[in-house]
Amino acid sequence: MRQEIPNELQKLPDIAYNLLWTWHPAAQALFSRLDPEQWEATEHNPVRLLAETENLASAASDTAFLEAYGAVVKDFGAYLEQEDTWMAYAYPGLQEPVAYFSAEFGLHESLPIYSGGLGVLAGDHVKSASDLGLPLVGVGLLYAQGYFRQRLTAEGRQEEVYEPFGPASRPLRPLLDEEGRDVLVPVDVAGRELYLKVWRVEVGRSAVLLLDADIPENAEEDRGLTARLYGGGQRTRIAQEVILGVGGVRALRAAGIQPGVYHMNEGHAAFSGLERLRELVEGGASFGEAREAVARNTVFTTHTPVPAGHDAFPPDLFGEFTGGWAESLGVSGEGLWALGHKEEEWGPTFNMTVLAMNLSAVSNAVSELHGEVTRDMWRPPAGNGAENEASETPITHVTNGIHTWSWLSPELADLFQRYSGGRAWRRMVQDPAAWSFVGEIPPEELWRAHAAVKLETTGFINDRLRLQAGRTGTSYRELDPDALTLGFARRFATYKRATLLLHDPERLRRILASADRPVQFIFAGKAHPADEPAKEFIRALYEAAEGDFAGHLFILEDYDMNVARHLVQGVDVWHNNPRRPLEASGTSGQKASLNGAPNFSVLDGWWPEAYNGRNGWIIGEAREYASQEEQDAADADSLYTTLEEEIVPLYYDRDAAGVPGAWVEVMKEAITTVAPDFSTQRMVRDYVHKLYVPRMAQAAR
Ligand SMILES: *Cc1c(COP(=O)(O)O)cnc(C)c1O
């Protein structure tokens, strides 16, 4: 299948196999230029593009193409060999990598091994580590069918379509041993010996190792264990977590990597701590010593206060998958069980979050508010020796951010580059002062750049809506690029209350259908396949979009990172109304704000830290309610009122040239306040200072 690469373009495969291209617009432009149709048809997958395009020979003799190619090769070389990174001067001599375990990684739409914000955060973390020169290796699973693609039927029901991942045609390569053979890592899963193939994804200077059970060495039923992200029931889930935790540590060893810190992103990865404990006990340590040693350089991040987001396994299932573990850990069965057991809150189950907290010296939540909620949630019961005070538990917070270069539109990046006057803002994104040039951009220029991106986004959405309507046989209506456009896109978890907007249909109709100040809403998102109430939310929105609110409310199927990029870059306002305080952080509003689409949200997650009265709008009040009905009614009323009295009038208040001056001020304020503080560049630096380096220093003692 692989075709000859012409001599003139020998480095194209190297570019295709390093996901640095995902945040390098010139590299993407190069692939698109090589074959625009295949670039779209392959969903921006350069490895497939290079295998399938018929344009290689002509590109090799096209001087303009060769020039663009030469520039990208040079940029890649400079990036990969850069020595004066932030880490090199902040912590010179610190060489040991961070091992970052996560069940999902959202790196790009061409690698569908993520379901939502948790995965995208992991992907952005890996990318910023690379930018900063922090040595980091991600550890995850390769799902043979990835996460599902979403189709909506004519009745608005979600259908899940699974497609083979086909690793050979994606930007990743098998890890090979010295003799050039595939590395295979053995893991015992419920008494069955399994082998895992290890794949390596290059992400700038970082790497991600992905474990794959779908190989001929394994029995048919075992090959399916890593088929689907969050697929199957509790059995599959615990099997995947054994593979991720135990197999992940063994894959690092097989790759010759000795991490200085182990970071568990969510409880899914907590078995990694037990595997490291086993190694130490095998080397002669007692259980107690080994446990302390493991905790000393382990960091755990918890991502949700929603109980269903914490895996808890019943005793028989736990016993089946961990048979023999207690013995090799040098502890009694009760001692092992106690590591993940918290009877009062969770009943007779083994809880992976409890295990993760017990095996790490410090845990963190992902926003300030989530930190408070998490400390309340995990307050140690009285009488166990710990202080019975929420503030005494070792749970800190590092607020989530986004990888600026993966989410900023190329149009705005160009505009910013022009007005930054050569200042070092690209390397200093975490520094608010580095963004002050945004204030100097003439309002009409920022407005025109936004309008151009919006037109492109509207075209992208309309194309998709047309296909969607054609497939379901429903009528096609298109978005109006001149109307005030609000975006709402994220996983359809019920606490995110996607249908809150429909609370008072009459009032909503008056807002949307105004003849001179029209408003439209675009929704997108997947519901977990087993989450029927969330699917019902999709259906209700779909019914509204096909019925009473046709032409004003739109629902787009198959949300992924590509759709996310278009939406956050091209809508006017980003809308979010979770049931406070259940949104641990949220990041999509950060992506939109970076692109000048101010956030309009409940004061939950990251938003209370960012909102300053001038950089967006709030929904509801920062308080608790006696009932969910009361909370919904109050928040819906606030949503409508702010739209009616503030957002719509401000957006349509134009000068003679058609520019909404006061609106552009809000856009600028959103960009300058959100871009630095809510970047993963700020976030990863916080992890380094607060959590990684102190752990490394302690481990060395
Ligand atoms: C950013 C992102 C999310 C996270 O959205 P929230 O609103 O923070 O929950 C989910 N899915 C995709 C594809 C994203 O890009």
Please describe the structure with a list of short key phrases separated by commas or semicolons.
701 residues; alpha/beta; Rossmann fold; 3 domains; ten-stranded mixed sheet; six-stranded parallel sheet; 29 helices; globular; binds pyridoxal-5'-phosphate
Q: What's the short version?
A:
With 701 residues, the chain is of the alpha/beta class.
Number of strands: 20
Q: Assign the CATH class of the largest domain.
A: Alpha Beta
Uncertain regions: pLDDT < 50 for 5+ in a row? 381-392
CATH architecture tag of the largest domain? 3-Layer(aba) Sandwich
How would you describe what is shown here?
Helix 21 packs across helix 24 (561-570). The strands form 4 sheets. Strands 1, 2, 5, 6, 7, 8, 9, 10, 13 and 14 form a 10-stranded mixed β-sheet that branches. A 6-stranded parallel β-sheet has the order 17-16-15-18-19-20, with helices on both faces. A two-stranded antiparallel ribbon has the order 3-4. It folds into 3 domains: 7-81, no CATH class; 98-400 and 684-700, Rossmann fold, CATH 3.40.50.2000; 407-678, Glycogen Phosphorylase B (Rossmann fold), CATH 3.40.50.2000. It is built from 29 helices and 20 strands. It is of the alpha/beta class. Mean pLDDT is 95; it is low at 381-392. The structure holds pyridoxal-5'-phosphate (PLP). Pyridoxal-5'-phosphate (PLP) is lined by residues 116-117, 120, 490, 559-561, 564, 586-588, 591.
